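seq/struct pair 1
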Amino acid sequence: MKSSDVSAELLADVGDFIRNQREVASMSMRRLAEIANVSNPYLSQIERGLRRPSAEILQQIAKALKISVETLYVRAGILPDESTATIGVREAIGSDPHLTAEQKQALLNVYESFVATSAAAR
């Protein structure tokens, strides 16, 4: 596989992942762009795999989506994909292709309820 093919796959993968996480968060593209402080057209190009976001932009997007920036860095090819790396619950739910957006949101609601209850108990 050529280097350009791998790069195109990484761009598509990170774009799909960001779109998926945005949908799971029930957030419009416009809202994510606003929170992440990027333009709506630029975010659209990232999600469609047409633009390669910088590490700084990925950090802003991760913060806006409340997900691990390391996960985005791996998806974008900035960090190596370590088989021992842990994935967060939100990312795992959001990236599961077998779940619908509604199912993902329901699982996230349950998870966040457990986390809030646990935090309150401490």
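seq/struct pair 2
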Amino acid sequence: MRRIVQSKKLQHVRYDVRGPILVEAHRLESEGHKILKLNIGNTAPFGFEAPEAIVADMIHNLPESQGYADSQGIYSARTAVAQYYQSHGLTDTGVDDVYIGNGVSELIGMVLQAFVDDGNEILVPAPDYPLWTGAVTLSGGTAVHYRCDEANGWNPDLEDIEAKITGNTHAIVVINPNNPTGAVYSEETVRALVDIARRHRLVVMADEIYEKILFDDAVHHHAATHAADDVLCLTFSGLSKAYRVCGYRAGWVMVSGPKHLAEDFLEGLTLLANMRMCANVPAQHAIQTALGGYQSLTELIVPGGRFHEQSKLASRLLNEIPGVSCVEPRGALYCFPRLDPQVYRIESDEAFVIDLLRAKKILVTHGTGFNWFEPDHFRLVTLPDVDTLTEAIGRIADYLETIRD
């Protein structure tokens, strides 16, 4: 029998958040080592539980969740999502503009499959959440990475974006609040990004899954608010992070702007929604309860709350390590520290992360895994409690001392 190999479509697809480094972590665990996994923003292992009302409502609706639902999602969930955006100024949003998916991840793949032709270019931030780059590649497109400026709070470099637009550019991805940097874009920046899309007739794909996880004076601005009726905007969000139900896989994409010009694309998106039958039905019943109920997240993001205190602690401790600098996150659940190349002469950040894992049993993700350009960053999840986080960063500091030039 001939050798069975992976599809050539996967040749340039990476997802290092769960890649070879995680395989090495599993190997170490099989040998009896205890690994502290700071590579994935999975809330449950760190003691964050879903609000009781969401769990209760999902259980209550289980008897009615045994069959397929509408391929776009159950009516109550889509209504709740539409009303949520209506309350944020998008008054033209309706039930038919919402597609429910098995998390934002599934919807990103569906949207790009419906939208991208071979060779189309999609602007994606660097660093990015690597699913975007991988999904663009799998759909036959080319991800063109625009630089976010660390010296400017990780805001997008607008000049770099303009310089990378060609006649084959079809859309721009905006991740706000940003994973992995924790940047939260000002209203001026969001408006500028949408204006670029308007001038170049691009679709805006706004990944806003962390929109509720904001610290101090940070304010989230929906890209769709500035897209108005002349820029097609696809807004992605869901319950995973803000409501601590990563495993429920309940997400949505909301379509706004000149929908009459996108009828053919939306027909294709509906076709793909039909082909997967429907999203997980029990989890859809949690959406209305989550969006319309008590917002327990507030207790986590204010001073004294775990999300807030752990994020502040992590960035402070990282900045105290010689040769390490970290822009303080304004939202989300991550830090993206920089290792000064003059202090740490790292040629391969993937090798650095594996060596750190073997030496200190701490699992983080290397910066180039987020399509950053240089091997001088890594991402750390800030979900552990303050004691665990303090110990973890202490181990990182100890390891860095051994390789400091």
